[in-house]
Amino acid sequence: MSNSRNTIARTEILNLIREAGEALSHADLQASLGDLCNRVTIYRVLDRLLEEHLIHKIADVDGNITYAACHDCSGRHLHNHIHFRCEECQSVTCLNQVEPEFKLPRQYVVHSMNFTVSGLCPKCSGKR
Amino acid sequence: MSNSRNTIARTEILNLIREAGEALSHADLQASLGDLCNRVTIYRVLDRLLEEHLIHKIADVDGNITYAACHDCSGRHLHNHIHFRCEECQSVTCLNQVEPEFKLPRQYVVHSMNFTVSGLCPKCSGKR
DNA sequence: TATTAATTGCAACTAAGTTGCATTAATAAA
DNA sequence: TTTATTAATGCAACTTAGTTGCAATTAATA
Hints:
Two copies of one chain form a homodimer. Chain A has a single domain (8-126), classed as Winged helix-like DNA-binding domain superfamily/Winged helix DNA-binding domain (Arc Repressor Mutant, subunit A). Helix content of chain A is 30%, strand content 24%. The first copy, chain A, contains four helices and five strands. Chain A has a three-stranded mixed β-sheet with strand order 4-3-5. Chain A has a two-stranded antiparallel sheet with strand order 1-2. In chain A, helix 1 packs across helix 3. Strand 5 of chain A pairs antiparallel with strand 5 (109-120) of chain B.
Protein backbone atom coordinates (compact mmCIF):
# COMPACT_ATOMS: atom_id res chain seq x y z
CA MET A 1 0.00 0.00 0.00
CA SER A 2 1.11 3.50 -0.78
CA ASN A 3 0.46 6.77 0.99
CA SER A 4 1.28 8.72 -2.15
CA ARG A 5 -1.50 11.10 -3.22
CA ASN A 6 -2.91 11.48 -6.66
CA THR A 7 -2.39 15.16 -7.25
CA ILE A 8 -2.84 17.12 -10.45
CA ALA A 9 0.91 17.70 -10.80
CA ARG A 10 1.70 14.02 -10.30
CA THR A 11 -0.93 12.89 -12.79
CA GLU A 12 0.15 15.37 -15.44
CA ILE A 13 3.87 14.65 -15.08
CA LEU A 14 3.38 10.90 -15.22
CA ASN A 15 1.17 11.29 -18.31
CA LEU A 16 3.72 13.48 -20.05
CA ILE A 17 6.51 11.00 -19.39
CA ARG A 18 4.39 8.01 -20.41
CA GLU A 19 3.14 9.56 -23.62
CA ALA A 20 6.44 11.08 -24.74
CA GLY A 21 8.29 9.06 -27.37
CA GLU A 22 11.54 9.96 -25.68
CA ALA A 23 12.97 10.59 -22.22
CA LEU A 24 12.18 14.03 -20.76
CA SER A 25 14.33 16.37 -18.73
CA HIS A 26 13.19 18.56 -15.87
CA ALA A 27 13.37 21.50 -18.29
CA ASP A 28 11.22 19.70 -20.86
CA LEU A 29 8.59 19.03 -18.22
CA GLN A 30 8.68 22.58 -16.95
CA ALA A 31 8.15 23.88 -20.48
CA SER A 32 5.19 21.56 -21.07
CA LEU A 33 3.58 22.19 -17.71
CA GLY A 34 3.76 25.97 -17.89
CA ASP A 35 2.44 27.32 -14.61
CA LEU A 36 0.48 24.24 -13.66
CA CYS A 37 2.91 23.84 -10.78
CA ASN A 38 6.11 25.22 -9.32
CA ARG A 39 9.47 23.95 -10.59
CA VAL A 40 10.31 22.65 -7.11
CA THR A 41 7.17 20.52 -7.26
CA ILE A 42 8.44 18.93 -10.46
CA TYR A 43 11.62 17.84 -8.68
CA ARG A 44 9.61 16.44 -5.80
CA VAL A 45 7.10 14.62 -7.99
CA LEU A 46 9.96 13.06 -10.00
CA ASP A 47 11.55 11.83 -6.77
CA ARG A 48 8.29 10.23 -5.74
CA LEU A 49 7.72 8.57 -9.11
CA LEU A 50 11.27 7.18 -8.97
CA GLU A 51 10.70 5.75 -5.49
CA GLU A 52 7.48 4.17 -6.65
CA HIS A 53 9.29 2.59 -9.62
CA LEU A 54 6.98 4.20 -12.14
CA ILE A 55 9.81 6.00 -13.94
CA HIS A 56 13.56 5.59 -14.22
CA LYS A 57 16.41 8.08 -14.42
CA ILE A 58 18.92 8.24 -17.26
CA ALA A 59 22.24 10.11 -17.27
CA ASP A 60 24.19 10.60 -20.47
CA VAL A 61 27.97 10.87 -20.53
CA ASP A 62 27.77 14.58 -19.78
CA GLY A 63 25.58 14.05 -16.74
CA ASN A 64 22.38 15.34 -18.36
CA ILE A 65 19.45 13.74 -16.59
CA THR A 66 16.24 12.58 -18.26
CA TYR A 67 13.34 10.43 -17.13
CA ALA A 68 11.45 7.66 -18.91
CA ALA A 69 8.51 5.46 -17.99
CA CYS A 70 9.05 2.02 -16.52
CA HIS A 71 7.30 -0.81 -18.30
CA ASP A 72 7.40 -3.77 -15.98
CA CYS A 73 9.18 -2.83 -12.79
CA SER A 74 6.77 -4.16 -10.21
CA GLY A 75 9.18 -7.02 -9.52
CA ARG A 76 12.69 -5.76 -10.14
CA HIS A 77 13.74 -2.27 -11.11
CA LEU A 78 16.98 -2.98 -12.87
CA HIS A 79 16.75 -1.24 -16.25
CA ASN A 80 19.46 -3.14 -17.96
CA HIS A 81 18.46 -1.85 -21.36
CA ILE A 82 20.45 0.60 -23.41
CA HIS A 83 19.58 4.28 -23.79
CA PHE A 84 20.52 6.18 -26.88
CA ARG A 85 21.27 9.87 -26.97
CA CYS A 86 21.35 11.55 -30.38
CA GLU A 87 23.99 14.25 -30.64
CA GLU A 88 22.06 15.87 -33.47
CA CYS A 89 18.46 16.09 -32.23
CA GLN A 90 19.35 15.65 -28.54
CA SER A 91 16.68 13.01 -28.04
CA VAL A 92 17.15 10.27 -25.46
CA THR A 93 15.26 7.05 -26.06
CA CYS A 94 14.98 3.67 -24.34
CA LEU A 95 15.99 0.75 -26.52
CA ASN A 96 14.02 -1.71 -24.43
CA GLN A 97 14.85 -4.61 -26.70
CA VAL A 98 18.62 -4.13 -26.43
CA GLU A 99 20.05 -5.78 -23.31
CA PRO A 100 23.82 -5.74 -23.02
CA GLU A 101 25.57 -8.88 -21.78
CA PHE A 102 28.48 -8.63 -19.41
CA LYS A 103 30.05 -10.44 -16.53
CA LEU A 104 31.43 -8.82 -13.38
CA PRO A 105 33.76 -10.53 -10.93
CA ARG A 106 31.70 -12.39 -8.35
CA GLN A 107 32.30 -9.99 -5.45
CA TYR A 108 30.47 -7.10 -7.08
CA VAL A 109 26.85 -6.62 -5.96
CA VAL A 110 24.77 -4.89 -8.64
CA HIS A 111 21.88 -2.64 -7.64
CA SER A 112 21.31 -0.49 -10.70
CA MET A 113 22.65 0.21 -14.16
CA ASN A 114 23.01 3.18 -16.44
CA PHE A 115 23.91 2.38 -20.05
CA THR A 116 23.90 5.30 -22.43
CA VAL A 117 25.27 5.27 -25.94
CA SER A 118 25.67 8.54 -27.84
CA GLY A 119 25.81 9.17 -31.57
CA LEU A 120 23.26 9.59 -34.35
CA CYS A 121 19.76 8.16 -34.18
CA PRO A 122 18.19 6.53 -37.27
CA LYS A 123 16.32 9.71 -38.16
CA CYS A 124 19.41 11.91 -38.03
CA SER A 125 21.90 9.45 -39.50
CA GLY A 126 19.61 9.18 -42.54
CA LYS A 127 19.83 12.90 -43.24
CA ARG A 128 23.54 12.75 -43.95
CA MET B 1 51.30 17.85 -33.43
CA SER B 2 49.73 19.57 -30.46
CA ASN B 3 49.84 23.17 -29.39
CA SER B 4 48.89 22.25 -25.86
CA ARG B 5 51.32 23.53 -23.26
CA ASN B 6 52.83 21.61 -20.42
CA THR B 7 51.82 23.75 -17.49
CA ILE B 8 52.12 22.97 -13.80
CA ALA B 9 48.35 22.63 -13.41
CA ARG B 10 48.08 20.28 -16.38
CA THR B 11 50.95 18.11 -15.19
CA GLU B 12 49.64 17.87 -11.64
CA ILE B 13 46.06 17.11 -12.67
CA LEU B 14 47.08 14.43 -15.14
CA ASN B 15 49.35 12.84 -12.51
CA LEU B 16 46.61 12.84 -9.91
CA ILE B 17 44.17 11.17 -12.29
CA ARG B 18 46.74 8.64 -13.50
CA GLU B 19 47.90 7.69 -10.05
CA ALA B 20 44.49 7.53 -8.40
CA GLY B 21 43.08 4.03 -8.06
CA GLU B 22 39.65 5.41 -8.85
CA ALA B 23 37.99 8.06 -10.97
CA LEU B 24 38.21 11.60 -9.56
CA SER B 25 35.66 14.37 -9.54
CA HIS B 26 36.35 18.06 -10.00
CA ALA B 27 35.85 18.45 -6.24
CA ASP B 28 38.36 15.66 -5.50
CA LEU B 29 40.92 17.38 -7.68
CA GLN B 30 40.28 20.76 -6.14
CA ALA B 31 40.76 19.29 -2.67
CA SER B 32 44.06 17.64 -3.66
CA LEU B 33 45.40 20.64 -5.52
CA GLY B 34 44.70 23.15 -2.78
CA ASP B 35 45.64 26.57 -4.10
CA LEU B 36 47.98 25.31 -6.77
CA CYS B 37 45.51 26.72 -9.27
CA ASN B 38 42.10 28.27 -9.58
CA ARG B 39 39.02 26.06 -9.79
CA VAL B 40 38.22 27.45 -13.24
CA THR B 41 41.62 26.27 -14.40
CA ILE B 42 40.74 22.74 -13.30
CA TYR B 43 37.65 22.80 -15.54
CA ARG B 44 39.71 24.06 -18.44
CA VAL B 45 42.54 21.57 -17.98
CA LEU B 46 40.03 18.72 -17.81
CA ASP B 47 38.48 19.89 -21.07
CA ARG B 48 41.89 19.90 -22.71
CA LEU B 49 42.83 16.47 -21.41
CA LEU B 50 39.52 15.12 -22.72
CA GLU B 51 40.10 16.59 -26.16
CA GLU B 52 43.58 15.11 -26.22
CA HIS B 53 42.14 11.70 -25.32
CA LEU B 54 44.32 11.39 -22.25
CA ILE B 55 41.36 11.01 -19.88
CA HIS B 56 37.70 10.05 -20.21
CA LYS B 57 34.56 11.26 -18.51
CA ILE B 58 32.19 9.06 -16.53
CA ALA B 59 28.66 9.91 -15.41
CA ASP B 60 26.85 7.76 -12.89
CA VAL B 61 23.08 7.35 -12.88
CA ASP B 62 22.71 10.53 -10.82
CA GLY B 63 24.76 12.57 -13.25
CA ASN B 64 27.83 12.81 -11.01
CA ILE B 65 30.87 13.33 -13.21
CA THR B 66 34.28 11.78 -12.62
CA TYR B 67 37.41 11.45 -14.73
CA ALA B 68 39.73 8.51 -15.29
CA ALA B 69 42.91 7.99 -17.28
CA CYS B 70 42.80 6.53 -20.76
CA HIS B 71 45.01 3.52 -21.36
CA ASP B 72 45.21 3.04 -25.08
CA CYS B 73 43.16 5.68 -26.80
CA SER B 74 45.59 6.89 -29.42
CA GLY B 75 43.57 5.05 -32.04
CA ARG B 76 39.94 5.04 -30.98
CA HIS B 77 38.48 6.68 -27.91
CA LEU B 78 35.44 4.53 -27.38
CA HIS B 79 35.60 3.43 -23.74
CA ASN B 80 33.27 0.55 -24.01
CA HIS B 81 34.25 -0.82 -20.65
CA ILE B 82 32.07 -0.82 -17.57
CA HIS B 83 32.43 1.61 -14.69
CA PHE B 84 31.41 0.63 -11.21
CA ARG B 85 30.17 3.05 -8.60
CA CYS B 86 30.03 1.80 -5.01
CA GLU B 87 27.05 3.12 -3.08
CA GLU B 88 28.91 2.56 0.18
CA CYS B 89 32.36 4.08 -0.32
CA GLN B 90 31.32 6.25 -3.32
CA SER B 91 34.30 5.14 -5.36
CA VAL B 92 34.07 4.98 -9.14
CA THR B 93 36.43 2.56 -10.87
CA CYS B 94 37.08 1.45 -14.43
CA LEU B 95 36.64 -2.27 -15.01
CA ASN B 96 38.80 -2.25 -18.09
CA GLN B 97 38.51 -5.96 -18.57
CA VAL B 98 34.71 -5.97 -18.66
CA GLU B 99 33.35 -5.12 -22.10
CA PRO B 100 29.61 -5.48 -22.50
CA GLU B 101 28.26 -7.03 -25.69
CA PHE B 102 25.20 -5.60 -27.37
CA LYS B 103 23.73 -5.07 -30.80
CA LEU B 104 21.97 -1.93 -31.97
CA PRO B 105 19.78 -1.75 -35.06
CA ARG B 106 21.91 -0.95 -38.08
CA GLN B 107 20.83 2.70 -38.49
CA TYR B 108 22.31 3.83 -35.19
CA VAL B 109 25.75 5.47 -35.43
CA VAL B 110 27.73 5.09 -32.18
CA HIS B 111 30.20 7.76 -31.16
CA SER B 112 30.64 7.21 -27.43
CA MET B 113 29.42 5.09 -24.55
CA ASN B 114 28.78 5.51 -20.87
CA PHE B 115 28.22 2.31 -18.91
CA THR B 116 27.94 2.67 -15.18
CA VAL B 117 26.80 -0.01 -12.79
CA SER B 118 26.04 0.85 -9.18
CA GLY B 119 26.03 -1.34 -6.12
CA LEU B 120 28.65 -2.63 -3.69
CA CYS B 121 32.30 -3.01 -4.59
CA PRO B 122 34.26 -6.08 -3.45
CA LYS B 123 35.74 -4.25 -0.47
CA CYS B 124 32.35 -3.04 0.78
CA SER B 125 30.34 -6.15 -0.04
CA GLY B 126 32.80 -8.15 2.05
CA LYS B 127 32.11 -6.08 5.17
CA ARG B 128 28.49 -7.19 5.34
C1' DT C 1 66.50 37.01 -25.65
C1' DA C 2 62.31 38.56 -27.75
C1' DT C 3 57.89 37.27 -29.61
C1' DT C 4 53.54 35.04 -29.78
C1' DA C 5 49.66 32.92 -28.37
C1' DA C 6 48.16 29.48 -25.00
C1' DT C 7 47.00 29.54 -20.26
C1' DT C 8 45.61 31.45 -15.93
C1' DG C 9 43.18 34.22 -12.20
C1' DC C 10 39.56 36.85 -11.04
C1' DA C 11 34.97 38.42 -10.82
C1' DA C 12 30.65 37.97 -12.29
C1' DC C 13 27.35 35.23 -14.12
C1' DT C 14 23.95 31.29 -15.47
C1' DA C 15 21.95 26.87 -14.56
C1' DA C 16 20.61 23.08 -11.63
C1' DG C 17 19.09 21.38 -7.59
C1' DT C 18 17.91 21.79 -2.33
C1' DT C 19 15.78 23.36 2.06
C1' DG C 20 12.58 25.40 5.57
C1' DC C 21 8.26 26.80 6.48
C1' DA C 22 3.66 28.40 6.15
C1' DT C 23 -0.39 27.17 3.32
C1' DT C 24 -3.28 24.05 0.65
C1' DA C 25 -5.65 19.95 -0.47
C1' DA C 26 -6.14 14.61 -0.97
C1' DT C 27 -7.55 10.92 1.72
C1' DA C 28 -9.37 8.43 5.65
C1' DA C 29 -12.24 8.44 9.64
C1' DA C 30 -16.32 10.02 12.13
C1' DT D 1 -21.29 14.82 4.38
C1' DT D 2 -18.16 16.92 7.50
C1' DT D 3 -13.90 16.82 10.03
C1' DA D 4 -9.23 15.61 10.99
C1' DT D 5 -4.79 14.26 9.45
C1' DT D 6 -0.81 14.72 7.01
C1' DA D 7 1.03 14.55 2.22
C1' DA D 8 1.90 17.90 -1.16
C1' DT D 9 2.64 22.56 -2.76
C1' DG D 10 4.43 27.45 -3.40
C1' DC D 11 7.62 30.64 -2.32
C1' DA D 12 11.93 32.60 -1.13
C1' DA D 13 16.36 31.85 -0.14
C1' DC D 14 20.11 29.08 -0.54
C1' DT D 15 23.96 25.83 -2.20
C1' DT D 16 26.53 23.67 -5.82
C1' DA D 17 28.24 23.15 -10.47
C1' DG D 18 29.77 24.99 -14.42
C1' DT D 19 30.60 29.16 -17.83
C1' DT D 20 32.31 33.59 -19.74
C1' DG D 21 35.05 37.88 -20.65
C1' DC D 22 39.10 40.05 -20.04
C1' DA D 23 43.47 41.55 -18.42
C1' DA D 24 47.80 39.52 -16.79
C1' DT D 25 51.01 35.74 -17.04
C1' DT D 26 54.01 32.30 -18.99
C1' DA D 27 55.46 28.10 -22.02
C1' DA D 28 57.34 27.33 -26.32
C1' DT D 29 59.31 28.77 -30.55
C1' DA D 30 62.10 31.57 -33.53
